[in-house]
Design brief:
Elements lengths: L1 H31 L5 H33 L1
Length: 71
C-alpha cells in the first residue's frame, strides 16, 4: 500500500514540476510581449508552494518506507 502511495506522490511531483515550468514560461512570455504578467507570477508562486508540499509528502512516504524496510 505504501508503494502505491509513493507512486502517486511521485506522479504528483512530476506533474507539479511540469505545471511550474509551463507557468514560468507563460509568465515570461506575457512580460516579453508587454502584457501584465502579475497574475501569472502569482499563480506560479502558488504552483511552487504546492509543489513543495508534494515533495514534502513524497519525502515523508520515502522515510516511512525506509523505516519499514529496515525493520
Amino acid at each position: 500500500m505504501e508503494y502505491e502511495h509513493l507512486a502517486q506522490a511521485e506522479r504528483h511531483v512530476r506533474e507539479g514540476v511540469a505545471h511550474v515550468q509551463r507557468q514560468r514560461h507563460l509568465a515570461v512570455e506575457l512580460e516579453r510581449k508587454g502584457h501584465d504578467a502579475s497574475t501569472a507570477w502569482r499563480l506560479l508562486n502558488q504552483f511552487e508552494e504546492l509543489l513543495a508540499l508534494h515533495i514534502q509528502g513524497r519525502d515523508r512516504i520515502m522515510a516511512e518506507l525506509k523505516k519499514i524496510e529496515a525493520a
